Amino acid sequence: IEAKGLLHRPPPSSSSFLDFSMASLDMTISRFLLLLLFPPSGFRAAARDFKPRAYLEPSVQRFPGLSNIPEKWWSQDSKAWPPPPPYTNTIKDLGQTSSLEQCEQRSIQYRNPDVSPLSGWTRCDSYTWIGSSGGNCVCIVDLWGWEPKQTQDPVIVSGIITWPPQKCRSHADCSYNGRCNPETEVCECNASWKGDRCHILNLLPAVRNTGLRIVSEQNGRNISTWGGSVIFDPTNNISHMWAAEISDHCGLNTWTTNSRIIHATSKDPNKNYTRHSVVVPAFAHEPNVVRAPSGEYVMYYTGSFTDDPPPNPCMECTDGSTPEGSCQGGPSGDGPTYMIYATNPYGPWSKPVQLFKSQANFTNLDTNLAVVILPNNSVVGIARNEGPPTIDLTHLVTAEDWRDPDSYKARWNSLLFPNTTVVNERGVEDPFLYMDGQGMFHAIFHNQIEKDDERLCGAHAYSVNGLDWVFTGTAWGNVVNFTDGLVYKFSRRERPHFVFGDRTDPFKITALTTGVQYGPHAPISADGEDACFTLLQPVSLH
What is the pTM assigned to this prediction? Predict the structure, then answer.
């Protein structure tokens, strides 16, 4: 592996709080062991999933009579500018142009200076030219922002700009979700990924209510859930999900008082899950569950201090949402991080142990801790806290032994992504970590921008050694296509986890789970519309 240049380990920093010389060696051995354990399925799947793409020249397709901007925002007589949220960030006024061709050229040359270059909102993906209003030229810097409407204006044209794939020089340019073809210099992505850099998740239409959507058997009312961590057990083909459930029919706004962790199961990892039992009572939130080398199910979560009395739950809800103006207050979301484990997914679970005790002055927010446990029992993870410059800050976490709570240390004084210009203005949160069949580390996140605009809500990063991470950008958005033809824009889409539900290939991604919030005002989040559920959306397998 090292001879092929796939494994690069920079020397540990002298300022590091831990000596990683032995840990790096252990991780090298661990990754080698993974390759020995799963070489045929992992590498065969990777080779099978590569799909070549042609290198295309830039092109523009015109659509006379169609407008891709709402008429009420830009009419012949007046401008309603800037557009209201959430579209303020993606509709760009390029001024007046004397011709359609000039508008096209201006759209092709435009670069958005207000966002991360990896956001997917840097170039115009479509435009509208309004000849009847003096040649106004407007472009949309959103690949998913093509929603044209027929107009009565005889001099209006919209167009789609198709950009050529960026050239690659190495597999790193393909986010290690594919390979760089040395002949075409174009990334050939694994089936579950797409895009110039294989950084966009190749999602398929979802089936209605797949995942974890609970309705009370007693009264038929909705019960909100938020994100699902899934582990597939190939010994009996049962998939286990651990999710946050909001009790007493309340919505997400009561998470600090009503959230508890539940266990659900499914005979098909990519379909519906059935609630089984409560694992950790309120307050407990955002579970991440991984398997230890010796088989234990290890859960990390945020909860109340174990010596504190449980919070008083909100009791004023009826159908999965929290009535506007009710149940204000409650504890903040800066509870400590705990770990529990069990040899059986149904329990019993060990007594909770608190992590980061010696670093408590840094944990000013729920840490969202997510980890991978290596075959030598060491841990690589990611946690967050709050502060400038991006509000949500992510940091590397390591532990010498997953069982030893005192060995968990976060590099709170160092950012996981030191170049903060590559992430969006609010940073990232809700990490989920995993390793692929070639021993590379990956993470997905909830991607945050201004005013909880969820159109860029998914993000991806990779690491060759588990210590140094590269942010690759936006991986999915809040628009979900369903198999029955419904296209829905959720007002929130967070807490991502991958499902590895292939019985023959433990590294194959089969689905994405996310906590999604819905309501009549979606994609805008409105008071009283915090009902949510855990959505499962399949990814392409071929």
Answer: 0.87
